[in-house]
């Protein structure tokens, strides 16, 4: 799994948003708001050439006090949404 090129995390007035960059991504309906946890995962995953659900779970558990089962469920939901929205790909 990897974050697709052409999307960037920005902090605008304390809100985390993913914005399209580059001419091929000029579709402003894809500006996505993230909570602090999802933004943390985006930053961590975007620094990697590729990642897995296990990678995301490890990142989440390293930063937050959360049980592995709950972290895995949350990460699966997040990555499913990212793929549906065209922000991540396998």
Topology overview:
Elements: E1 2-3, E2 7-12, E3 15-20, E4 32-34, H1 36-46, H2 53-63, H3 68-84, E5 88-89
Antiparallel strand pairs: 1-5, 2-3, 3-4
Helix pairs in contact: 1-2, 2-3
Keywords:
Arc Repressor Mutant, subunit A; globular; alpha+beta; 21% strand; two-stranded antiparallel ribbon; 3 helices; three-stranded antiparallel beta sheet
How would you sum up this structure in a few lines?
43% of the residues lie in helices and 21% in strands. It is an alpha+beta fold and 90 residues long. It has a single domain, classed as Arc Repressor Mutant, subunit A (Orthogonal Bundle), CATH 1.10.10.
* CATH architecture assignment name: Orthogonal Bundle
What is the 3D shape?
A: globular
Tell me the CATH topology: Arc Repressor Mutant, subunit A
| Estimated radius of gyration | 13 Å
Q: Runs with pLDDT <50, length 5+?
A: none
**Spatial ordering of strands, largest sheet:** 2-3-4
What proportion strand?
15-25%
The biggest beta sheet is recorded as: 3 strands, antiparallel
Helix content: 40-55%
Class by helix and strand content? alpha+beta
Number of strands: 5
Number of helices: 3
In words, what does this structure look like?
This protein has 90 residues and is an alpha+beta fold. The chain has a single domain (2-89), classed as Arc Repressor Mutant, subunit A (Orthogonal Bundle), CATH 1.10.10. 43% of the residues lie in helices and 21% in strands. It contains 3 helices and 5 strands. It has helices spanning 36-46, 53-63, 68-84; strands at residues 2-3, 7-12, 15-20, 32-34, 88-89. The strands form 2 sheets. The protein has a 3-stranded antiparallel beta sheet with strand order 2-3-4. The chain has a two-stranded antiparallel sheet with strand order 1-5. Helix 1 crosses helix 2 (53-63). The N and C termini lie close together (4 Å). The model has no long low-confidence stretch (mean pLDDT 90).
């Amino acid at each position: 799994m990897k974050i697709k090129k052409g999307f960037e995390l920005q902090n605008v007035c304390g809100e985390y948003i993913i914005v399209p960059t580059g001419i091929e991504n000029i579709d402003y309906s894809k500006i996505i708001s993230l909570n602090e946890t999802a933004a943390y995962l985006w930053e961590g995953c975007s620094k990697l050439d590729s990642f897995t659900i296990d990678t995301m779970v490890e990142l989440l558990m390293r930063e937050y006090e959360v049980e592995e089962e709950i972290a895995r469920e949350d990460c699966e939901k997040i990555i499913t949404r990212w793929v549906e929205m065209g922000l991540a790909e396998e």
